Amino acid sequence: MKMFEKNFEAAVERFPWSGLIVLALSGFVCILTEAVPAGLLLPIGESLRVSEASAGQLVTAYALGSLLAAIPLTQATQGWRRKRLLLLCLAGFLVFNTVTALSPNYMLTLAVRFLAGVTAGVLWGVTAGYARLMAPVSVRGKAMAVAMSGTPLALAFGVPLGTFIGGFVGWRAVFGLMSLLALLLLLWALRSLPDFPGRTLERRMPLRQVFVLPGVRPVLLTVLAWILAHNILYTYIAPYLTLSGLDSRVDLLLLLFGAAALAGIIGTGASIDGKLRRLVMFSLAGFGIASLAFAFFSDHPFAICLAMAIWGLTFGGAATLLQTAVSDAGGENADLAQSMLVTSWNLAIAGGSVIGALLLNVLGAVFLPWANILFIAFALITVYQARVYGFPLNKR
Q1: 254-293: pLDDT as tens digits
Q2: Are 395 and 258 part of one and the same domain?
Q3: What number of other Cβ atoms are within 10 A of residue 38's Cβ?
Q4: CB 236 within 8 A of CB 365
Q5: Residue 214's closest CA among 318, 333, 127?
Q6: How many percent of the chain have pLDDT more than 70?
Q7: 239 closest CA partner among 327, 329, 364
Q8: Are the C-beta atoms of residues 156 and 257 closer than 8 Å to each other?
């Protein structure tokens, strides 16, 4: 019994739960800061005296900041100590969310949202590499799963809860609560987060050389195709659900999606260290099956509910799988490879919104899943061909 207790304690000590949870909550704050305004556009617009469409640009400004900042700032801060960089990001969320909560002016709010997006671009660039530095090699995949769990948690529960709270106490109070969360997280990180040095000048690789490393480009292509497919439908899920009469149940269906996504990330964390390629193929195939159900059974509520659950289950581990794959391909230059992934991810979010809008306006919501199927097929072919580098056949 004592031997078991010693082994258990040693395993807990080897796996850096506290530091990884800090990273996960940092991602939670990041996604929450990005996505909460989408559910509060009407009160934000009324408060700042702008249209709902103009209020929607607060989300666009954040995404633009992340898109523009991820690669250059990650490259510029390679030599910084990891803890100091993460603490500065958390301090940024504290300041920018506080200013957003107090701002009386639309243009000031827009500018601060852009700066919050810049902070997010840096944070996503450092998180995966930080998680890899903390954990032993044998459990790095599990460590990545824990560190990335904040994303599905924020999408599944944080954003709906923030929207719900905003309906009672106002959107400014929601940003105030996010500032408080950033402050508490900053204090926790100061106390418990381990520190690591940045890379010396001799160990840094130019951006172009990281881009052409074997495996990096297949992963980035997969990111583009997978996240494009996801956002084409996710962004316009409400008009699509009118086809089955479920448009009044969007909140419940997104909750179903989120709960399934949480199950997906738990399953991913449990098996990613030995089955990354298999999990990516399985996830894409599952998403493809769900998209076929959306395409052929758009007027069948039960089929739509089942497809939503499958979609969520197969998407939950996407961030972990793709970030782990690009980190493996980037090796010592994982931070730069991650910054490319962040840029690709945000391009796919913007592209999904544009392509989805075109399809919706020209062909109608019924054609959205068919675009999904095309992009998923491309992603599957890319992963299949990247059997040596990117998504290798051999175990990690």
Answers
A1: 778 878 888 888 888 777 777 889 999 999 999 999 999 9
A2: yes
A3: 16
A4: yes
A5: 333
A6: 94
A7: 364
A8: yes
Distance CA 244, CA 304 (A): 8
Is 182 in the same domain as 233?
no
In this structure, are 236 and 348 located in the same domain? Answer: yes
Q: What one-character DSSP code corresponds to residue 5? A: H
As a three-state string, the secondary structure of the chain is CHHHHHHHHHHHHHCCHHHHHHHHHHHHHHHHHHHHHHHCHHHHHHHHCCCHHHHHHHHHHHHHHHHHHHHHHHHHCCCCCHHHHHHHHHHHHHHHHHHHHHCCCHHHHHHHHHHHHHHHHHHHHHHHHHHHHHCCHHHHHHHHHHHHCHHHHHHHHHHHHHHHHHHHHCHHHHHHHHHHHHHHHHHHHHHHCCCCCCCCHHHCCCHHHHHCCCCHHHHHHHHHHHHHHHHHHHCCHHHHHHHHCCHHHHHHHHHHHHHHHHHHHHHHHHHHHHHHHHHHHHHHHHHHHHHHHHHHCCCCHHHHHHHHHHHHHHHCCHHHHHHHHHHHHHHHHHHHHHHHHHHHHHHHHHHHHHHHHHHHHHCCHHHHHHHHHHHHHHHHHHHHHCCCCCCCCCCC
The amino acid occupying position 170 is: G
Contact 209, 337 (CB under 8 A): no
Residue labelled with tokens 């940045």 = 198
Range of the structural domain that residue 240 is part of:
205-396
Please tell me the total count of domains within the chain.
Answer: 2
Query: For residue 233, what is the domain's CATH number?
Result: 1.20.1250.20
> Do the beta carbons of residue 317 and residue 267 sit within 8 Å?
yes
When comparing pLDDT for 51 and 292, which is higher? 292
CA 155 to chain centre: 9
User: Can you tell me the mean pLDDT for 1-5?
Assistant: 43
Over residues 297-350, the pLDDT tens digits come to 988 999 999 999 999 999 988 888 898 898 888 877 777 888 888 888 878 877
Amino acid at 76: A
**Would you state the structure tokens that stand for residue 278, as one six-digit string?**
């298999």
3-state secondary structure 289-326: HHHHHHHHCCCCHHHHHHHHHHHHHHHCCHHHHHHHHH
Domain end call among 200, 230, 258: 200
Identify the sign of the CA torsion 299, 301, 302, 303.
Answer: positive
Quote the pTM value: 0.78
